[in-house]
């Protein structure tokens, strides 16, 4: 630095001496490649590049050294951004959370991460609606990396398995009006509340909301009803008894703000995932997605009037506060990312389109879990290799992933216990979940015998009581329309299904929206019924709640 400064008294001799010593220093530095960027140049960066290029050009022995230096520079940069190892995703209901769970699950498969699973092979939530407890999770016998399935927030017990100091806590929120409308319909609240006979059950509910005591009482039998009010905050740990206590709500907000690094916002999905990707230090392809769990259009409500909107907001007062607070924070976080952020959002949108072209043949109907059908996708048949694996992963729902992880867990335990599984780490075996999700055409399904090899693959269903034992009015309606499916044979490769029912109902079925679409094929077809809109599958009588 000295050599570049102007000398105060301009004495000639001093200047000449300084000049020569500077020149000497430059030569020495050049020779030994110790060139400092700021030295003797206002454009040190440029000088360094020129010097390096020259050296490389000359095939100087030190060109390797320079390359190595660059490698070091890169790895130093990478160190600033190392993929996050531990993520707790608090999966809220009806917020696009299954799409995010898919992202985490497939990252876990690709990078050999351990996903925490609910205890009990039939259960797909962590004892929800109870708050998360250690006893509701499988013992992974190693530190789990991700939690990505429905669990109700519990700071203390979650902190044991996912210490906040090195776990990224994230969740997702949706506008309380559309989230509540989706929950209300998807969770069949009109049936649970016995108001399904009303012309507009939602409107009726909003004008005649039940008391908290009433909700609590019915919720004991139908736990999904806990989501009837402030469903977002309920998942995030707030109890019904606090919904009207504004100072408690404020404190809860502050705690969540402290605990959670990021609340994704469903309405801004691509921005959310870009922010998430940056925070996790993942690649863009890690967060590409296909929308999951979208209701069939006939199950969506077309219009929510302004009056209804106001009532929904008033009813879900705590969720409105929660949503507004974190949306504001979300935009602050986006702003902090600076320029370049939106280029990545655009890139993500572009990749989504590309993957959609690559993977999807057409939209189909999929069974989210028992009795509930949502939009799904039919994977292209001609995919092979990595593309096929990637597309399958993207299209696999959380139930199938959980079954897969359970299989992996069993192998891990066998390995720990010293059983004879060899080469576990090198195993390239693909799990059953990635074997095509069986789909059949709804019309074929109705009219006749099918030869479908995939049929032998039984898909475990998510146990869920929500649809069990619905109100008598609904049962009466359904009895009237019950189809009597007779499964004639069900050996591994050949399934013959005969449907005995009046032509009248057949016509109704073929006119319904599902006609011509694909439906998942289940092993037990006997209890399929038709409710006027879509084929639904009733719960066996002895089915119990996953969370009781
Ligand atoms: N990417 C993306 N963008 C916008 N909206 C999306 C996205 N992914 C899912 N969804 C919508 O989220 C609803 C399903 O939410 P969940 O997966 O959380 O449901 S569940 O609680 O796991 O059953 C469901 O909303 P409704 O269709 O209104 O019910 C989906 O359509």
TrEMBL record:
<keyword id="KW-0812">Transmembrane</keyword>
<comment type="similarity">
    <text>Belongs to the galactose-3-O-sulfotransferase family.</text>
</comment>
<keyword id="KW-0325">Glycoprotein</keyword>
<keyword id="KW-0472">Membrane</keyword>
<dbReference type="InterPro" id="IPR027417">
    <property type="entry name" value="P-loop_NTPase"/>
</dbReference>
<feature type="transmembrane region" description="Helical">
    <location>
        <begin position="14"/>
        <end position="32"/>
    </location>
</feature>
<keyword id="KW-1133">Transmembrane helix</keyword>
<protein>
    <submittedName>
        <fullName>Galactose-3-O-sulfotransferase 2</fullName>
    </submittedName>
</protein>
<dbReference type="InterPro" id="IPR009729">
    <property type="entry name" value="Gal-3-0_sulfotransfrase"/>
</dbReference>
<keyword id="KW-0735">Signal-anchor</keyword>
<keyword id="KW-0808">Transferase</keyword>
<dbReference type="Pfam" id="PF06990">
    <property type="entry name" value="Gal-3-0_sulfotr"/>
</dbReference>
<keyword id="KW-0333">Golgi apparatus</keyword>
